[in-house]
UniProtKB/TrEMBL annotation:
Family: Belongs to the FGGY kinase family.
Keywords: Kinase, Transferase
Name this protein carries in UniProt: Xylulokinase
Gene Ontology biological-process entries: carbohydrate metabolic process
Residue intervals of the Carbohydrate kinase FGGY C-terminal domain: 253-441
Annotated Gene3D superfamilies: 3.30.420.40
Organism: Mycolicibacterium helvum
GO function terms (MF aspect): kinase activity; phosphotransferase activity, alcohol group as acceptor
Residue intervals of the Carbohydrate kinase FGGY N-terminal domain: 6-243
A Pfam cross-reference name: FGGY_N
Keyword field contains Lipoprotein: no
């Protein structure tokens, strides 16, 4: 009998992907549908949750012909993003995404003792990266939405509700809301203090557990077998860490897409306001997560505002990258403080703003594009250094995944800018692989996450900082770290 395979849906920020993954971690079929991101007012980041579902349905229907050996279906997802739905499950407003900042004023007014309590119980510092910021914004700014909400759902819970008729998530998602990270259950008293009833949040099921089955009507639409088991996995970043084989405290996973997320396993809970203590997936109980906003979104913003004659963002992006890689080595470039959506780890400053410094009349667009890419490596190093302090040991390796990691030039720049030995995973879809591994453990195919990471082991290509440029990058990295403090308080209002 053939080993089972898993059908994984990954609801990301820029697309929804459906992939059939076998027990060895091989991808047997893959389909994707794009998602649009809308920013109607400053600080807003929205998507239509119905697009999450239509993109999911389209991608699943495309891979359905290759699903004969599939034993279970699961969903991994962009963390924090939340949609308010009515009793029928229809969205009452656009989903507020993880990078949405509109609740900042509301959160700033929260008493300090309550803020500390939230972090101690949930592991999440109170910031716009806390998913409960979204219901609080609806309560104060769009009371009709808040009053009519039958539930506030994460992206996975919304999709699960359409697949299996159950509003359910897992601990790695729920810990961004009002879940006690030590007990994996919602803290009703904390909900009363902040003003959100926990009964409006999706139920929490352990990662790797069965949560339902595919209903006959939706199965017919998708071309999948009715009754196909649906198993909880986890949110994208803990799954990505597992998919990259990051299972020890000296290993670090760095996933870059719309934003960059730095994940490191920890054996015991750590409360540190520079990071989010995230519930892991499977038997990886806790991971420390640092967030570097908004790397991919910053690049797209820059590309969209460069005025050259190209047919679209994709063509222009490739043209700019080519110009960056062809820049003269050692050419002076400006420094970017990339706080286009506030600062996250290690500062957690929602009011921080993006700033370029060192611009001259000789600065080219390639120099500015270079600074966008370089700043990601500087930000990662800042987070890894702070994690080293918390963990009491230096990271032995940084593993890279995500769309930009397909470029060896980008990976080398990240190694040079961070000054850290880095490895590129053979598969950029680390979240998908990790989610499949969680389900395979849940099905009993593998005994543990560590065993699954060996059985599904990806190969890695190493990138070592160039010793000839190490001193120059160290100086620029120090200047980058000073830039936040120098610009603090000088924000445009």
């Amino acid at each position: 009998m053939n080993a089972p395979s898993v059908l994984v849906v990954d609801v990301g920020t820029s697309s929804v992907r459906a992939t059939v993954v076998d027990a060895s971690g091989a991808f047997l079929a893959h389909a994707a549908r794009p998602l649009a991101l809308c920013s109607p007012v400053p600080g807003a980041a929205e998507q239509d949750a119905e697009d999450w579902w239509s993109a999911t349905a389209g991608a699943l229907a495309e891979v359905a012909p290759y699903s004969a050996g599939v034993s279970a279906l699961t969903v991994t997802n962009q963390q924090i993003s939340t949609v308010a739905v009515d009793r029928s499950g229809a969205p009452l407003a656009p989903a507020m995404l993880w990078m949405d900042q509109r609740a900042n004023e509301i959160l700033d007014a929260m008493p300090a003792p309550v803020r500390h309590k939230v972090c101690a119980i949930t592991g999440s510092p109170v910031s716009s990266s806390w998913s409960i910021a979204r219901p609080l914004w609806w309560r104060d700014r769009e009371p009709r939405v808040f009053a009519n909400a039958d539930a506030f759902l994460t992206a996975d819970a919304f999709v699960y509700s359409r697949l299996a008729g159950r509003r359910v998530t897992d601990p790695s998602n729920a810990c961004f809301s009002l879940m006690n990270i030590h007990t994996d259950s919602y803290d009703r008293g904390l909900g009363v203090e902040v003003g959100v009833d926990v009964s409006l949040l999706p139920e929490v099921a352990p990662s790797g557990s069965a949560i339902g089955a595919l209903g006959p009507r939706v199965a017919q639409r998708l071309g999948l077998p009715a009754g196909l088991p649906i198993v909880a996995s986890g949110s994208d970043q803990p799954c990505a860490a597992l998919g990259m084989g990051v299972v020890r405290a000296d290993q670090v996973a760095v996933t870059t897409g719309t934003g960059t997320f730095v994940v490191r396993p920890v054996a015991t809970p750590v409360t540190d306001f520079r990071f989010v203590l995230n519930r892991g997936v499977g038997d990886l109980r806790y991971v420390l997560m640092g967030m570097h906003y908004v790397s991919g979104a910053a690049w797209n913003w820059f590309v969209d505002h460069v005025d050259v004659a190209c047919s679209g963002r994709g063509e222009l992006s490739q043209q700019l990258l080519q110009e960056v890689w062809e820049r003269e080595s050692g050419r002076r470039a400006p420094l970017l403080a990339p706080y286009f959506s506030g600062a996250r780890s290690p500062h957690f400053d929602d009011g921080a703003q993006a700033t370029w410094t060192g611009l001259t009349l000789c600065t080219s667009r390639a120099d500015m594009a270079y600074s966008v890419l370089e700043s990601n490596g500087f930000g990662v190093r800042q987070i890894v250094d702070a994690m080293d302090d918390v963990c009491g040991e230096p990271a032995s390796v940084v593993r890279l995944a995500g769309g930009p990691a397909v470029s060896p030039q980008w990976c080398q720049l990240q190694a040079d800018a961070s000054g850290l030995r880095s490895e590129r995973a053979s598969s950029a879809e680390a979240s998908t692989l990790g989610a499949a591994m969680v389900v395979l453990v849940g099905l009993g195919v593998h005994a543990s996450a560590a065993e699954a990471s060996i059985a599904c082991a990806a190969s890695f290509e190493s990138f070592v900082p160039n010793p000839q440029t190490e001193t120059a990058f160290a100086a620029r990295r120090m200047a980058y770290e000073d830039l936040y403090e120098r610009m603090k308080g000088a924000h445009v209002v």
